[in-house]
């Protein structure tokens, strides 16, 4: 299969590596001419000290080449515009897989393009860049994908799932996205506001109390929507993840501290929007939403 990847960040290139290793053809669609000029025609990935180089074509969205399989790994706030930038290159048989934090853009894509086959996923894989297009694999996680649209079949999963790219097929991907959203609501905005590592949320009474209140509200909204989160309380789950990733800076803490736009609108913003729709008060989440809006782009 030929896959176009929109979003050549860490997850995009991690997937490029997996797709190439499993026999697919890959083309990167880069954001602008500067990025294309910066790209030498290859990227490298280091996994367990072993470096692999891949020569991969790159192009701009404005090219005419048809897009049959599209992987979108941009930040959540950029994914709708990213899709629209190549929409004229797609057809009714195009298949799209979105892999990003947050919720909203995935459902929007399905609503706005009812003939499209749309998949969404959630991953705990980790990778980071040591320099542009030089990727270091940080940890092997789990990737769950599921179909969001009426269109399509399990064929896409079967084509992608292999030893080089092990995936889990989800029949209820919305619940999976909600679980990730719930954890992100609990950890990301607070780490950005307190400018701390994930583990440092657990060390102070005020941070723990804020996290507990956020978790309680998220559980109320999820339950009103009949979404089952975890076997245990969300606070317990979020605590475990904050502890496990204790030394990490969350993606939102990094975005805020580096002056980049954040994913707050598709994380806490989405939660608050759903709460309003269901007539539920979520003051702690609303407060963190307002606070992040006031300090970020
Ligand atoms: O997904 C994350 C993120 O930073 O976006 C968590 C789970 C909080 C880990 O840092």
Automatic annotation (TrEMBL):
InterPro entries: 6-PGluconate_DH-like_C_sf, 6PGD_dom2, ApbA, Ketopantoate_reductase, KPA_reductase, KPR_N, NAD(P)-bd_dom_sf. It catalyses: (R)-pantoate + NADP(+) = 2-dehydropantoate + NADPH + H(+). Residues 172-294 form the Ketopantoate reductase C-terminal domain. Residues 3-149 form the Ketopantoate reductase N-terminal domain. Transmembrane segments: none annotated. One of its GO terms (cellular component) is cytoplasm. Belongs to the ketopantoate reductase family. PANTHER family: 2-DEHYDROPANTOATE 2-REDUCTASE, 2-DEHYDROPANTOATE 2-REDUCTASE-RELATED. This is 2-dehydropantoate 2-reductase.
